[in-house]
Amino acid sequence: MAAPVGDIGLIGLAVMGQNLILNMNDKGFTVVAYNRTTSKVDHFLANEAKGTKVVGAWSIEELCAKLKRPRKIILLVKAGPAVDSFIEQLIPHLEPGDIIIDGGNSHYPDSIRRTKELEAKGFLFVGSGVSGGEEGARHGPSLMPGGSPAAWPAIKEIFQKTAAQVNGEPCCDWVGETGAGHYVKMVHNGIEYGDMQLIAEAYDILKRGLGLHEDEIADIFTTWNKGVLDSFLIEITANILRFKDDDGEPLVTKILDQAGQKGTGKWTAIAALDAGMPVTLIGEAVFARCLSGLKEERIRASKVIAGPQKEAFKGDKKQFIDDLEQALYASKIMSYTQGFMLMRETAKELNWNLNYAGIARMWRGGCIIKSVFLGDITSAYQKNQNLESLLFDDFFNKAAHKAQPGWRRIVAQAVLWGIPTPAFSTALAFFDGYRSEIVPANILQAQRDYFGAHTFKVLLGKENAKLKAGQDIHINWTGRGGSVSASTYSA
Question: How far is Cα 340 from Cα 40, in angstroms, rounded to an integer?
């Protein structure tokens, strides 16, 4: 058999797979392409890959035979059983030290399991987040690899040259151990849900609140895209709002208001609940999509449940739009603050060594949430890699304080209009809760102890003979209960 020629192999010739192969080919790498339905290999080589260095393989055995050692094989197949199935098929044709890379949207616990299983057999595993969609895959995605650290030197050049570049820096770096790559991609997708919901709420306020036409709203978004909100999602939203149907009407006004979801936002919200972290904005963004799904029920409700009487806006329209820009910016800060808090907590639990500046740097280009804003997050973590919260960084602290007055006016006005703003509102509630030295959880603990003997701890400085500092205390609130307490635990 001829000497191996492939620098890397890729299984899965759907849109993402094909575009990633062509991207790697452009960067000078020889890619061996395989698909379970082998006619797709023939079609790809005869069409999209014609005239390139891409090599075809028509069996797993042939794919492995054509790869240089250590073999590097990317799976771009549907997450779940299909990934495990291909891993099983690959193993008989691999040697110790070969690398299997899962580039799909796998749930991070699966990547933790696969890393351990493959390492036990002498192989290396990488679970890599890939963001940027079709365009990103073709011209430079954001790549978030994690798994077996020993794999990184072997794939680093291919990954970093294939990734998007911002100011000469690749939007790709090693994320961390076992499932860290897919975990970071999951949080990225959750933040994406939040950003999209915030933009949708801003549109709703401008449309229903101020009564503006889509063209006017598009102009506002275009202006915002030149300032602190400069981002891919703001840019495409302006383009969407300007897009006309054949009759000249904005196409967006004809789209059914029911949002789909693939589950990564839900995974982030569940992970936040499991970790006990208040990632409220992503949670509300997921629930907003769930509420949008109740279309027929909402139609019935709209006919029988009255809201406030809508009055025309009589204030300063320019000031209101400036306030809305600040509200959107501040709410984004809260969402990213929450996302990085979640990653920090999970890294602590799973003993991952996450590079937070590197993660923000990876998201600056190639991915759906790319924005100027992420450069500021990178700077914050470069200054202090152990930063407890973005709100403790001077830049973000000042930005949140500057935005406060307008942010509060927007949320208050939306409430008066009866326009739902779950993401804006929860962001502000988190901000106010996070900056509160005292919150009313003392009432919650008293209630829990009253009805379930769940105990409480006493505030420092409020101790006495009966109330000891640091102890779990149960009080007989009614005089009828006993002195035995239930076990204590944290959610």
Answer: 41
The whole-angstrom distance between residue 158's C-alpha and the CA centroid of its chain comes to 24
Nearest to 345 by CA among 384, 382, 388: 388
Percent of the chain predicted with pLDDT > 70: 98
pLDDT tens readout for residues 113-145: 999 999 999 999 999 999 988 889 999 999 999
- Please tell me the distance from the alpha carbon of residue 449 to that of residue 491, in angstroms, as a whole number: 16
Residue 468: helix, strand or coil by DSSP? coil
Cα distances (Å, whole numbers) of residue 474 to 441, 463, 478, 483: 16, 14, 12, 7
At 423, list the tokens.
Answer: 């993401």
Question: Annotated catalytic, 192?
Answer: yes
Q: What angle (nearest 5°) sits at the alpha carbon of residue 220, between those of residues 218 and 224?
A: 115
Give the active site residue among 177, 192, 214, 325: 192
Contact predicate 347/354, CB 8 Å: yes
Is the pLDDT at 491 greater than 60? The verdict is no
Task: Quote the pLDDT of residue 332.
Answer: 97
CA atoms of 98 and 93, how far apart (whole Å) = 10
Q: With residue 175 as reference, give the H or E element that holds it.
A: none
Tell me the per-residue pLDDT of 65-79, one tens digit each, with 9 for 90 and over.
999 999 999 999 999
Q: Is 417 helix (H, G, I), strand (E, B) or coil?
A: helix
Instruction: Tell me, yes or no, if 345 is annotated catalytic.
Output: no
On whether the CB atoms of residues 451 and 476 are closer than 8 A, the answer is: no
Phi, psi of 116 (to 5 degrees): -65, -45
| Residue from 185, 207, 266, 332 carrying the catalytic annotation | 185
* Residues whose CB is less than 8 angstroms from the CB of residue 393 and which lie 6 or more positions away in sequence, other chains included: 380, 383, 384, 387
434 vs 478, which has greater pLDDT? 434
